């Protein structure tokens, strides 16, 4: 009973029911549309379906057990002495993907501060792995342009990124015609949220975070895609 009642006392769910009361009381189309928007993007049942679609169709592709290509780990910030958790998550995912390989392979890493990445990975990955680290640029779009100039696009690759960046990584890999698959390190936002007895009567803040990240990710790519025909900003060296 506690698990059923408690979510209704959260501020966002109190707001949901107050919103519903206002719609019934004032009977305004604008309020009704706002309520539908607020409920749809916050409902866990609907959000979990989006998470399932994104996870299977976008952020995680099947990788063959006998894969014999190389790996690309896109940078995730940091400084000269440390790397953030998102970078550790990507590198840990790479270690799992390459586990058991006995052949030589290369790991390409695109980041401004290479040494912390190299130090973190070297102690965890097979000795025969060659680590190739370089500054690819300030954005994912700069990184892909640099990679296209530096790597053989016909070489089988696995791109390792975070799940909230997987959409643009997959689109860019296809655009630059890399022979690549995309594998994303998971984050809490894209993991299913428990949908209990009150699931259809409540909203969850993590679902708004999910749709905010998806909107930002897709908007970023489509703005780039729209402008790349008449500008070359992503080809120019970026500072930092």
Enumerate the strands of the largest sheet in spatial order, edge to edge or round the barrel: 3-2-1-4-5
Low-confidence stretches: none
Radius of gyration: 22 Å
Percent helix among the residues?
40-55%
Number of strand elements = 5
SSE topology string:
HHHHEHEHEHEHEH
What CATH architecture of the domain at 57-187 and 230-235 do you see? 3-Layer(aba) Sandwich
Write down the overall mean pLDDT.
Answer: 92
Beta-strand level of the residues, as a percent range? 5-15%
What is the SS-derived class? alpha/beta
What descriptive keywords fit this protein?
single chain, 240 residues, Rossmann fold, five-stranded parallel beta sheet, 9 helices, 5 strands
Summarize the structure.
49% of the residues lie in helices and 12% in strands. It has helices at residues 2-5, 11-26, 29-42, 44-59, 85-98, 114-122, 140-150, 166-175, 205-227, and strands spanning 70-74, 105-110, 129-134, 157-162, 180-185. The longest helix has 23 residues, at 205-227.
How would you describe this protein?
This protein is of the alpha/beta class and 240 residues long. It has a domain at 57-187 and 230-235: Rossmann fold, CATH 3.40.50. The chain is built from 9 helices and 5 strands. The chain has helices at residues 2-5, 11-26, 29-42, 44-59, 85-98, 114-122, 140-150, 166-175, 205-227; strands at 70-74, 105-110, 129-134, 157-162, 180-185. Strands 3-2-1-4-5 form a 5-stranded parallel beta sheet, with helices on both faces. The protein starts with a helix and ends in a 13-residue tail after the last helix. The model has no long low-confidence stretch (mean pLDDT 92).
């Amino acid at each position: 009973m506690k698990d059923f009642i408690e979510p209704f006392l959260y501020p966002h769910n109190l707001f949901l029911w107050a919103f519903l009361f206002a719609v019934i009381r004032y009977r305004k189309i604008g309020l009704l549309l706002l309520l539908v928007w607020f409920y749809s993007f916050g409902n866990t049942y609907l959000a979990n379906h989006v998470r399932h679609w994104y996870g299977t169709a976008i952020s995680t592709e099947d990788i063959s057990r006998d894969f014999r290509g190389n790996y690309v780990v896109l940078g995730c910030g940091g400084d000269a002495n440390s790397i953030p958790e998102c970078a550790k998550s990507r590198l840990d995912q790479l270690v799992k993907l390459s586990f058991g390989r006995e052949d030589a392979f290369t790991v390409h890493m695109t980041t401004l501060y290479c040494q912390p990445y190299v130090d973190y990975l070297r102690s965890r990955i097979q000795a025969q792995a060659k680590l190739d680290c370089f500054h690819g640029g300030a954005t994912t779009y700069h990184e892909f342009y640099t990679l296209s100039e530096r790597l053989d696009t016909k070489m089988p690759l696995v791109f390792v990124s975070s799940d909230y960046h997987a959409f643009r990584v997959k689109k860019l890999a296809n655009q630059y015609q890399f022979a690549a698959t995309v594998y994303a390190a998971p984050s809490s936002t894209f993991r299913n949220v428990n949908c209990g007895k009150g699931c259809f009567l409540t909203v969850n803040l993590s679902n708004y975070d999910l749709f905010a990240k998806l909107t930002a990710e897709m908007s970023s790519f489509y703005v780039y895609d729209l402008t790349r025909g008449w500008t070359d900003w992503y080809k120019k060296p970026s500072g930092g």
